[in-house]
Design brief:
It is built from 3 helices and 6 strands, in the order ααββαββββ. The protein is an alpha+beta fold. A hairpin with a 2-residue loop joins strand 5 and strand 6. The longest helix is centred in the middle third of the chain and has 15 residues. The protein is globular, with a radius of gyration of 13 Å.
Length: 113
């Protein structure tokens, strides 16, 4: 189901992440999506970099789950306070993810620890 509503796009991404469904997860991301550590430290750019990173994570982390604690939507931006569970070798991690949605896909994400 395609939608341009930013909250629904981000919710579809979180749902795919929690199912570890790589194709559905990638479908929520713009082909040129960029992920940053806030404010401007680039982690990954584009499907070519993102697909193998998340394929490895999904394969290694059977208990992987993102829990959205709070969500704020402002125009094309969705700001989630999230706890991620099941990261290999790590306790649960709580942080903020700021998603920019353009044309029905996530174009940029900033992670704030």
């Amino acid at each position: 189901r395609e939608t341009s509503d930013p909250a629904r796009v981000v919710e579809a991404q979180v749902d795919a992440y929690n199912r570890r469904d790589l194709d559905a997860f990638m479908a929520t991301l713009d082909p040129d999506a960029r992920l940053y550590v806030f404010p401007d430290s680039l982690l990954h750019a584009g499907h070519a970099q993102l697909r193998p990173v998340y394929a490895r994570l999904f394969a290694r982390a059977a208990g992987l789950r993102a829990e959205v604690l709070q969500r704020t939507v402002q125009g094309r931006y969705v700001i989630d306070r999230e706890t991620t569970h099941g990261l290999p070798g790590r306790p649960p991690v709580t942080g903020v993810a700021i998603y920019e949605v353009r044309d029905g896909r996530i174009a940029r994400v900033w992670f704030v620890d």
